[in-house]
């Protein structure tokens, strides 16, 4: 793969550029810096950020995704806007959709074993009361033994069902790295990285300038209409509100904090998306739209049974009707709050 070869070449070149006067004698390395009695090192935040960005843009996963997009574009003959969308849908189907199904299975198993806990707690309390009388335990000793036994029983259930709570974050472990890698790969195409002198990079850049559609004919420029940035914010907010509306229990304080945090991040992404090339913004919108569809799809009981997610009490029988009614209630409450402020008191003039 040409991009991988380019990265290896750049790596060797940059290493030589950092130490142009290094001399190797046998296994010893001698540099002019070793001849100085005092050497000074200066930390630079800008240099650190630039070095991190360079390392990320020249990483192997980014090179594979970047070369894969070029190969798909050349093989199918699709315009670049369609190539970006097709690559996004393909990678999310291969990576994040299976992880989302698996995560939902883990959540369902955790809920199932939590239903077994009341009976186990009842038995443990009876056993603890009997042990207090038989072994003359104090209340503190009994509480320690009870908590230890309860934790052991919970861990046994987790091992039995293979549903460790840490696995409920498996979707983020796959989705965030994928989002970063593909974003950097697209940014590389726009910036002709990792080697701007490579003919393949220049061809890809030229095709991107002509591979847009509608209001964004040039994918290397910003979306001045702000259609994509605003759409990105709306889609991300929709995902958050649908997840909140699909809960059958009152959210905890931590869940409320995270929901508000993600709402803020969704709004913050709008100006960020307005400042990046439109092809990158197109990728973000496509990825978020796929996530919205994925969440809606996995709410359906029929789909959940098809992919092997067990039924649980918290599952909504008619999820789409529930979400629609929840949104209608929120809009009604909002209208009720704004209504009195817009109404003027009746005139008292004769």
UniProtKB/TrEMBL annotation:
GO terms for biological process: mitochondrial respiratory chain complex IV assembly; protein insertion into mitochondrial inner membrane from matrix. Keywords: Membrane, Transmembrane, Transmembrane helix. PANTHER family: CYTOCHROME C OXIDASE ASSEMBLY PROTEIN COX18, MITOCHONDRIAL, OXA1. GO terms for molecular function: membrane insertase activity. It is a multi-pass membrane protein. This is Membrane insertase YidC/Oxa/ALB C-terminal domain-containing protein. InterPro entries: YidC/ALB3/OXA1/COX18 (IPR001708), YidC/Oxa/ALB_C (IPR028055). Belongs to the OXA1/ALB3/YidC family. One of its GO terms (cellular component) is mitochondrial inner membrane. Residues 80-297 form the Membrane insertase YidC/Oxa/ALB C-terminal domain. The keyword Zinc-finger does not apply. Transmembrane segments: none annotated. It holds the Pfam family 60KD_IMP. It is found in: Membrane.
């Amino acid at each position: 793969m040409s991009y991988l070869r380019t990265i290896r070449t750049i790596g060797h070149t940059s290493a030589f550029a950092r130490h142009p006067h290094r001399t190797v004698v046998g296994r010893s390395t001698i540099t002019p810096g070793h001849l100085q009695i005092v050497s000074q090192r200066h930390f630079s935040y800008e240099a650190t950020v630039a070095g991190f960005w360079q390392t990320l843009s020249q990483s192997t996963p980014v090179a594979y995704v970047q070369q894969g997009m070029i190969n798909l574009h050349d093989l199918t003959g699709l315009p670049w806007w369609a190539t970006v969308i097709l690559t996004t849908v393909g990678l999310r189907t291969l990576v994040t959709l299976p992880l989302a199904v698996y995560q939902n299975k883990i959540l369902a198993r955790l809920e199932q074993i939590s239903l077994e806990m009341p009976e186990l707690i009842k038995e443990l309390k009876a056993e603890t009361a009997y042990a207090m009388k038989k072994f003359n335990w104090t209340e503190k000793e009994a509480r320690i033994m009870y908590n230890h036994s309860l934790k052991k029983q919970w861990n046994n259930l987790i091992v039995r069902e293979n549903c460790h709570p840490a696995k409920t974050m498996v979707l983020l472990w796959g989705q965030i790295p994928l989002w970063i890698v593909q974003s950097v790969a697209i940014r590389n195409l726009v910036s002709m990285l990792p080697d701007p002198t490579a003919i393949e990079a220049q061809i890809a850049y030229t095709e991107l300038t002509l591979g847009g559609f509608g209001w964004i004919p040039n994918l290397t420029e910003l979306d001045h209409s702000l259609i994509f940035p605003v759409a990105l914010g709306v889609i991300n907010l929709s995902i958050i509100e649908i997840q909140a509306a699909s809960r059958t229990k009152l959210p905890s304080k931590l869940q409320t904090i995270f929901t508000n945090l993600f709402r803020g991040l969704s709004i913050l992404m709008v100006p960020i998306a307005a400042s990046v090339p439109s092809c990158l913004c197109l990728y973000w919108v496509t990825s978020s739209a796929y996530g919205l569809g994925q969440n809606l799809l996995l709410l359906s009981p029929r789909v959940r049974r098809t992919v092997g997610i067990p039924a649980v009490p918290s599952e909504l029988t008619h999820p789409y009707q529930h979400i629609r009614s929840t949104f209608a209630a929120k809009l009604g409450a909002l209208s009720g709050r704004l209504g009195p402020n817009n109404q003027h008191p009746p005139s008292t003039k004769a």
